[in-house]
Design a protein that fits this description.
With 293 residues, the protein is mainly beta. It has three helices and 20 strands. The strands form four sheets. Strands 12, 13, 14, 15, 16, 17, 18, 19 and 20 form a nine-stranded mixed sheet that branches.
Length: 293
C-alpha cells in the first residue's frame, strides 16, 4: 500500500502540472526567506535518505508540538485534508509562490492537548489558522503548527519541509534553509506587542538590555510558545519595576538591573518590519520590564 506521502505527492504533482504549465523554467528560491519554524530546531541534510515509502524528498525540522510554522516566502496557501477514514491522517499544506515554486509542509498538528492525543483533525485552529486555505500570505506569516500527524505519529514532533520546482520535482531544501532568517515571532498585525517570559538578563547598558528568552507570547496571534534565544532590546524609555519576595512591586531604573536576574518584558507596540520580526539588536523596544529576582 502506498504511503500517505506517495499519494499526496502524486496529487501535488498533478496539481503543479495543471496549474503551472508554461511557468518559466528559471523559477528559483528567492534570496530572502523566513525559516519555516519559529523556535529552537535541529535538522540535518537528510534529503534523499531511504524511507519506507521511497526516498526522503525534504528535510525534517525537529521541533516541539504546537510551535508556529510560517511562510517561507510569500504565496498562496492550499491546505490538504486526508480523505475520511484515512489511516494515515497527515495534515499538510502547500505554499504556492508566484514564480511557480511550491513549498510543502507535512506532519502539521492534530493534537488538542499538550501531548500526543490525536484528538484533533486537519482543520483550522488545530493544524493551521482558521480560514487560511486559499489565502495569499506574506513571508513570515503564520501558516500552521508543528505536530506529528500521519506516519510521524508517536515520534518527536517535526516539520517535514519540501521545496518543489514548477514541474513538481523536489530539490534539496538544506542550503536554502541554512540561508533563511530565523524570526522571533511570526508576522503580526500593525501595533502589536510581544511579551518575553522567563527571560534571564545577560547584559545591560545605559539604554539597552540583553536577555535570553524562554517563552514568547504574541497576543495578537493568540500564540504562546517556547523559544530560547538571545535578544537585545532598546530600553531607554522602559518602565522598570521590581517584584519582592512578598509580591509587592516597587519602581526602579534600568541602572538597577543586574546580570543574572529573571525578568518579564513587554515590548512597545510596533509595525512588523523585517528587522523587528528577526529581533535584530535594538529593533524592538521595551515598554515595561518586571524584575523577578
Amino acid at each position: 500500500m502506498p504511503s500517505h506521502r506517495t499519494t499526496a505527492r502524486g496529487i501535488l504533482l498533478l496539481l503543479l502540472i495543471g496549474v503551472f504549465t508554461g511557468t518559466a523554467s528559471a523559477a528559483e528560491v528567492p534570496e530572502k526567506t523566513a525559516f519555516p519554524v519559529v523556535g529552537n530546531v535541529t535538522y540535518t541534510d537528510d534529503f534523499g535518505d531511504p524511507r519506507p515509502g521511497g526516498w526522503h524528498e525534504g528535510n525534517d525540522l525537529m521541533s516541539v508540538r504546537h510551535q508556529p510554522a510560517i511562510a517561507f516566502v510569500a504565496g498562496r496557501v492550499q491546505t490538504y485534508v486526508p480523505s475520511p477514514g484515512s489511516s494515515t491522517g497527515t495534515c499538510m499544506l502547500y505554499l504556492h509562490a508566484k514564480n511557480g515554486m511550491t513549498y510543502v509542509y507535512i506532519h502539521l498538528n492534530n493534537d488538542l492537548g499538550p501531548n500526543n492525543d490525536n484528538k484533533g483533525h486537519c482543520e483550522g485552529g488545530v493544524s493551521w489558522p482558521s480560514g487560511i486555505n486559499g489565502d495569499h500570505v506574506r513571508r513570515g506569516q503564520l501558516v500552521g503548527f508543528v505536530g506529528d500527524s500521519g506516519d510521524a505519529n508517536g515520534i518527536q514532533p517535526h516539520l517535514h519541509f519540501e521545496v518543489r520546482k514548477p514541474s513538481g520535482r523536489a530539490i534539496n531544501p538544506f542550503s536554502h534553509l541554512k540561508k533563511s532568517k530565523h524570526l522571533l515571532f511570526p508576522r503580526t498585525p500593525a501595533d502589536s506587542k510581544v511579551t518575553l517570559k522567563g527571560t534571564k538578563v545577560l547584559d545591560r547598558t545605559a539604554d539597552s538590555i540583553t536577555v535570553r528568552t524562554k517563552r514568547i507570547v504574541v497576543p495578537s496571534l493568540d500564540l504562546d510558545y517556547l523559544y530560547a534565544r538571545r535578544v537585545t532590546l532598546s530600553a531607554s524609555d522602559a518602565t522598570v519595576r521590581r517584584k519582592s519576595g512578598s509580591g509587592s512591586l516597587s519602581t526602579t531604573t534600568l541602572s538597577d538591573v543586574k546580570v543574572g536576574e529573571r525578568a518579564r518584558i513587554v515590548t512597545t507596540a510596533f509595525d512588523p518590519t523585517w528587522p523587528r520580526l528577526r529581533a535584530t539588536p535594538n529593533a524592538l523596544a521595551v515598554e515595561s520590564l518586571l524584575l523577578l529576582g
